[in-house]
């Protein structure tokens, strides 16, 4: 069946308990914050969910053939990774998985390392597990791109550091790390006997034609043996409310440790989550391609607008995600989030990412909405 996809108009979301929209309910503030797009998901996914709904029986659902095959085929087709069914665990979210990894793979007295700025649960998870967190800032390479600072990581590592938590592609800076950068990280993990928790939830949102995502576990057998890969279709297909994610753990011992930790704590994925993931991976590719074209145009719109109209904001080129990381430190505003809200635009505060004086703008929305948001940002800067 062929469909034309419409990203220009989106349904009203207030009244549906939307985290993104209800934050500003009754206030004239355009929400361009939290990582949830305004687009209706792929029609192929809607059809599958409707079909599941029409069945009418919503009993306990186990990981069954359709989602397992969909994930395995997707990993092979899209990321050249031949995974086995036994390596998978379906999960209701990656945030709980990151937290559980801190419990499963560390003991009191151990530490966890990550590169900042980063998605806030990477920072809070070790704290919740009462483990020390070692934060190593990303650095700029010779091409002015954010990269992992391996030298600084070497300087900061401790004997009791057990895991490195990686965000690849990176939220919030939007980098797609090259094979060389990932290999340097893999070597670092080998040298220090670290388990690599690799959150690759944004891997299908690479809109830059030159960039190619490499699944960390495909780099070598050695790194695969110490990697916990965390993935989900939720960012790409705008399904976070369906709560369906998965982990891939090749190493039997690590997998057993993880499974023991999640036992009785993590809920089963529900029947709609399974229907959603299956349809996304089996039939969602044409929609994803159309989405990437739309996001690429939105990205260029922001990039050109900021360069031309608000050069005081530093916005480095990015290759993936629909999240733009804006350095507003040159504006001299004490509370940037409040300031922009006062001018009618809601952006994510960079502080919990360890990005003081930074804001994150979600451009997973219609062009017209983005243009309106950019105008409000300009007015806020000029005020
Ligand atoms: C890097 C990263 N991991 C995980 C998540 C959320 O995962 P989940 O909704 O499956 O808990 C997000 C959401 O923005 C994210 O950016």
What does the model show?
The structure is a single chain. The protein starts with 18 loop residues before the first helix and ends with a helix. It has helices spanning 19-22, 43-55, 65-79, 94-104, 120-128, 150-156, 179-191, 221-224, 252-262, 271-283, 285-309, 336-342, 367-382; strands at 30-31, 88-91, 111-116, 132-137, 139-140, 146-147, 161-167, 195-199, 227-231, 245-249, 323-327, 345-346, 348-349, 358-362. The longest helix is centred in the last third of the chain and has 25 residues, at 285-309. The protein is of the alpha/beta class. The protein is built from 13 helices and 14 strands. α4 packs parallel to α5. It folds into two domains: 19-43 and 285-382, Aspartate Aminotransferase, domain 1; 57-283, 3-Layer(aba) Sandwich (Aspartate Aminotransferase, domain 2), CATH 3.40.640.10. Strands 2-10-9-8-7-3-4 form a seven-stranded mixed sheet, with helices on both faces. It has a three-stranded antiparallel sheet with strand order 11-14-13, with no helix packed on it. Strands 1-12 form a two-stranded parallel ribbon. Helices cover 39% and strands 15% of the residues. The mean pLDDT is 97. The site of pyridoxal-5'-phosphate (PLP) has 13 residues, from α4.
> What name goes with the CATH superfamily of the largest domain?
Type I PLP-dependent aspartate aminotransferase-like (Major domain)
The low-pLDDT segments are none
Instruction: Report the total helices.
Output: 13
Oligomer: single chain
Strand content: 15-25%
Strand order of the largest sheet: 2-10-9-8-7-3-4
- What is the strand tally? 14
Bound molecules: pyridoxal-5'-phosphate
Main CATH class of the largest domain: Alpha Beta
End-to-end distance: 51 Å
What series of H and E elements makes up the topology?
HEHHEHEHEEEHEHEHEEHHHEHEEEH
Shape: globular
Q: Mind telling me which CATH architecture of the largest domain this is?
A: 3-Layer(aba) Sandwich
Q: Output the structural class.
A: alpha/beta
Helix content: 25-40%
């Amino acid at each position: 069946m062929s469909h034309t996809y419409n990203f220009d108009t989106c349904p009203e979301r207030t009244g549906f308990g939307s985290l993104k929209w209800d934050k500003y309910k009754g206030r004239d503030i355009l929400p361009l914050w939290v990582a949830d797009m305004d687009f209706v998901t792929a029609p192929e996914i809607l059809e599958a969910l409707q079909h599941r709904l029409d069945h009418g029986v919503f009993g306990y659902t186990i990981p069954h053939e359709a989602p397992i095959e969909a994930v395995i085929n997707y990993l092979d087709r899209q990321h050249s990774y031949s995974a086995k069914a036994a390596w998978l665990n379906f999960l209701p979210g990656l945030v709980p998985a990151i937290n559980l990894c801190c419990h499963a793979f560390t003991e009191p007295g151990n530490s966890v390392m990550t590169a900042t700025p980063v998605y806030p649960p990477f920072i809070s998870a070790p704290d919740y597990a009462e483990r020390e967190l070692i934060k190593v800032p990303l650095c700029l390479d010779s091409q002015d791109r954010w990269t992992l600072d391996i030298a600084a990581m070497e300087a900061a590592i401790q004997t009791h550091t057990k895991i490195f938590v990686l965000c690849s592609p990176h939220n919030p800076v939007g980098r797609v790390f090259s094979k060389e950068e990932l290999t340097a990280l893999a070597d670092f993990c080998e040298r220090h006997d670290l388990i690599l928790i690799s959150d690759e939830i944004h891997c299908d949102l690479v809109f830059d034609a030159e960039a190619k995502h490499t699944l960390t576990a495909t780099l070598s057998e050695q790194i695969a043996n110490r990697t916990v890969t965390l993935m989900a279709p939720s960012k790409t297909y705008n399904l976070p409310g369906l709560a369906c994610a998965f982990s891939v753990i090749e190493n039997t011992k690590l997998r057993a440790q993880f499974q023991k930790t999640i036992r009785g704590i993590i809920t089963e994925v529900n029947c709609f989550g399974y229907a959603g993931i299956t349809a996304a991976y089996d039939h969602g590719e044409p929609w994803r391609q159309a989405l990437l074209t739309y996001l690429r145009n939105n990205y260029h719109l922001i990039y050109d607008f900021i360069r031309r109209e608000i050069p005081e904001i530093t916005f480095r080129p990015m290759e993936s995600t629909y999240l733009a990381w804006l350095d507003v430190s040159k504006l001299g505003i004490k509370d940037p989030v409040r300031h922009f809200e006062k001018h009618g635009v809601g952006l994510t505060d960079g502080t919990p990412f360890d990005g003081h004086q930074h804001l994150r703008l979600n451009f997973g929305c219609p062009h017209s909405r983005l243009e309106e948001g950019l105008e409000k940002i300009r007015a806020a800067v000029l005020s």
